[in-house]
């Protein structure tokens, strides 16, 4: 395989000099000793969560493991195949960093690392090869650096490949930097043992599902890192460049700018409407892609349980991807509640302003709850605001759940969009549409807009908007660096 000229990572370079040790606080967390039965109880929980049909019907992908350093005598950390860079984002439990180099410490022919990671994969399953159609020797790669026409048959091959193609050059002429292709999601540093135990189980369940999920609008997990069931455990994901929350902010800014210009004189007249239409078109495209991801999840009898703009992001090509699968659950027969036709699942799961009334009030729930959250997300995408801004828990229960309040829907939105939003957040779960219906309606709206006269004059603006979106990405990166610099 020819080394990628874009990559700075040299897997054969002297290891000791190139390694970046995990920061002190993480080392301290890594040395926390968890209860001796933690590993066995976690494995039981993992086995339970993978006992349904989803895992018998979907082959896990070939997922390699990477060393995150081991603690040796004197508390020193020896070795670390992953060099991590800046923080890309943090959630309630985890932090995500870019991977700036992968420095392999074993020869390619050495056996795969960490047999223990097999415990993430249901035992009865054979690992499927990570394949990309074809099988010839082409070196063409997809957005994550994988061969378009190649098949990986061993984990070591994938490790070598990822190490070589770990960085990519920017697409824009002005952008001379190398960018990380992968990101590492690990627990946030904490000394709260309970949080560590819960976080590790959630992250392991996430890894288990991601190994079997396969959809173009769902984030791809490319590897596992560190020792399973220990605080240095992590998952290697494709790196995303912006969350949907950031994108909504960006749309808001674009709309404001266009309005400003249209008020500034005759040259700007009409610009506001054209920009609004262009932005609506972008939002419909993103909404459609996300509805396809949700349709895929619901089609496998799974509930995602954490739909929100912070859990969707955009890859290097600008395609939207759903991520953060810590709360995903299979709706198995033993959880079914005959009276309600829903399932007995943990209440209050997810993020409050997107939670359906039945999740918040502890009733049985299921797929319609994901639809409710999707409805709130759609409202936010098309209004560029938080639907329940300034609502604390009590307000939400009182106003949204008890009094059935929903924010007004903009009359200038296409009727199809208004209908989907209205139906999706119906208080009665049985009246909400399925993701199948939502995807069909969004596709129809997308096609109508794409073929309509409107696009003729706004195409140029959509292009312009995409260009300024890329510039905005770079600015966002710079702002983040500054903020981190200030915080340190
Ligand atoms: N693959 C990725 N590439 C870039 N940034 C990412 C990636 N995955 C996650 N992030 C960033 O990190 C943040 C936290 O990630 P994630 O939502 O997976 O963590 P979490 O702790 O499970 O979150 P939550 O608070 O929703 O439970 C995201 O909101 C996003 O900003
Ligand atoms: Mg999240």
Automatic annotation (TrEMBL):
InterPro entries: Kinase-like_dom_sf, Prot_kinase_dom, Ser_Thr_protein_kinase
Gene3D superfamilies assigned to the protein according to its UniProt record, in alphabetical order: Transferase(Phosphotransferase) domain 1 (1.10.510.10)
Pfam families linked to this entry: Pkinase (PF00069)
Location of the region described as Disordered in the Swiss-Prot/TrEMBL record: 1-24
Domain Protein kinase: 82-449
Bilayer-crossing regions: none
Compositionally biased spans, kind Polar residues: 1-20
Database matches in SUPFAM superfamilies: Protein kinase-like (PK-like)
Protein name as it appears in the record: Protein kinase domain-containing protein
């Amino acid at each position: 395989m020819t080394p990628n000229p874009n990559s700075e990572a040299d897997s054969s370079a002297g290891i000791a000099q190139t390694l970046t040790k995990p920061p002190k606080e993480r080392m301290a967390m890594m040395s926390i000793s968890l209860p001796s039965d933690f590993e066995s109880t976690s494995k039981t929980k993992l086995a339970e969560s993978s006992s349904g049909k989803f895992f018998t019907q979907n082959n896990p992908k070939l997922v390699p493991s990477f060393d995150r350093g081991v603690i040796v005598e004197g508390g020193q950390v020896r070795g670390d195949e992953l060099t991590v860079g800046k923080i890309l984002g943090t959630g309630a439990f985890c932090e995500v960093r870019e991977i700036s180099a992968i420095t392999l410490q074993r020869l390619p022919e050495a056996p795969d690392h960490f047999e223990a990671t097999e415990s993430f994969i249901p035992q009865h399953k054979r690992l499927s090869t990570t394949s990309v159609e074809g099988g010839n020797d082409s070196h063409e790669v997809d957005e994550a650096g994988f061969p378009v026409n190649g098949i990986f048959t061993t984990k070591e091959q994938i490790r070598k490949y990822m190490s070589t193609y770990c960085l990519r050059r920017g697409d824009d002429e002005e952008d001379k930097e190398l960018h990380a292709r992968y990101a590492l999601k690990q627990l946030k540093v904490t000394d709260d043992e309970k949080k560590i135990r819960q976080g590790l189980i959630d992250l392991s369940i996430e890894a288990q599902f991601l190994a079997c999920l396969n959809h173009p609008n769902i984030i791809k997990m490319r590897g596992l890192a560190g020792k399973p069931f220990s605080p240095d455990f992590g998952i290697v994901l494709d790196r995303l460049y912006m969350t949907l929350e950031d994108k909504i902010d960006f749309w808001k800014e674009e709309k404001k700018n266009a309005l400003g210009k249209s008020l500034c004189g005759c040259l700007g007249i009409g610009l506001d409407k054209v920009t609004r239409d262009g932005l609506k078109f972008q939002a419909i495209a993103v909404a459609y892609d996300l509805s396809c991801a949700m349709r895929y999840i619901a089609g496998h009898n799974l509930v995602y349980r954490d739909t929100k703009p912070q859990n969707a992001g955009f890859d290097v090509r600008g395609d939207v991807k759903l991520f953060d699968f810590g709360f995903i659950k299979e709706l198995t027969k033993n959880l079914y509640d005959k009276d309600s036709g829903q399932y007995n699942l943990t209440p209050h799961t997810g993020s409050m302003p997107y939670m359906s009334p039945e999740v918040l009030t502890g009733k049985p729930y299921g797929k319609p709850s994901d639809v409710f959250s999707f409805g709130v997300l759609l409202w936010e995408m098309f209004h560029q605001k938080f639907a329940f801004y300034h609502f604390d828990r009590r307000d939400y229960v009182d106003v949204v759940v008890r009094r059935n309040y929903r924010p007004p829907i903009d009359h200038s939105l296409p009727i199809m969009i208004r209908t989907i939003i209205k139906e999706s957040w119906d208080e009665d779960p049985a009246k909400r549409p399925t993701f199948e219906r939502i995807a069909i309606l969004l596709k129809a709206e997308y096609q109508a807009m794409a073929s309509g006269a409107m696009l003729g004059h706004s195409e140029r603006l959509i292009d312009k908007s995409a260009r300024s979106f890329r510039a905005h990405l770079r600015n966002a990166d710079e702002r983040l660096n500054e903020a981190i610099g200030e915080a340190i």
